[in-house]
Amino acid sequence: MHQYVDFSRRKLVIGSSAIALVSALWLWPLAAPNANLLPAASAPAGTHGPYSTNFPRAENPISEGGEWLNGQADALDWANVQTIPGLAFGLEIGGSRPEPQKFDDATALLAGTWGPNQTVQATVHSVHQNLSDKVWEEVELRLRSTISPHHCTGYEVMFRCSKTPKAYCNIARWEGALGKFSYVKNSGGAKFGVADGDVIKASIIGNVITVYINGVQMVQTTDHTFTSGNPGMGFFIDGTTGENRNYGFSSFMATDR
Q1: For residues 154 and 229, is the Cβ–Cβ distance under 8 A?
Q2: Which pTM was predicted?
Q3: Secondary structure of the chain in HEC code, one letter for each residue
Q4: Which one, 24, 143, 211, 247, has least CB within 10 Å?
């Protein structure tokens, strides 16, 4: 945290007044040794990050000292994100459920105030990828997102944990209520899916959203709906149960610089 002294309203007077002022300032710390000379300043917007983690703790839900908000704990209608050392994964029930309940993606957003230009990056953990094309396991990056009881907004960048032709990387706009979302960009094919060890990244600069896999730009689009919010992560599962720990993130980083 930066500190400052505001001299904008001070005037220095030449002569005996200046001498008296200098003497008073020299003696004052002796009389008030605990005085706070430099009031704290708020950090300017847009300089919150970077934040990075390898998920060293076992937490349900993820907190890391109060750094995270969660889908069920803080918004009620979505699932939480859990961690074990070295892995973050979602707590969605999965299976074949009706809408909108099936869209209760496990969600975790970083707390605090973040600047609008954001970059999020994570390393994928994924096993059992060849279960079936009828199984959906997604890892998600979140940009400019907010969370509160029964309300979640922002951009979701989702990657299917698969390398089949039915893999995809899509961008969706969450619009508040559970199951209320719109697609901004859909991109399908094996090259858009992810496997264990892949590094995924998404950024939003102004109204431009850009997505990368292993440093290669895969998707780019524009949307102007959300101008503020926080970065985060999420997970989705459908068509199976009991696979939650078999896909997730082994590292995560977010910045607004």
Answers
A1: yes
A2: 0.82
A3: CCECCCCCCCCCCCCHHHHHHHHHHHHHHHHCCCCCCCCECCCCCCCCCCEEECCCCCECCCCCCCCEEECCCCCCCCECEEEECCEEEECCCCCCCCCCHHHCCEEEEECCCCCCCEEEEEEEEECCCCCCCCCEEEEEEEEEEEEECCEEEEEEEEEECCCCCCCEEEEEEEEECCCCEEEEEEEECHHHCCCCCCEEEEEEECCEEEEEECCEEEEEEECCCCCCCEEEEEEEEECCCCCHHHEEEEEEEEECC
A4: 24
Fold of domain 51-255: Jelly Rolls (2.60.120)
pLDDT-derived band at 36 (thresholds 50, 70, 90) equals very low
Structure tokens at 93: 């029930």
Joined tokens for residue 111? 């707390």
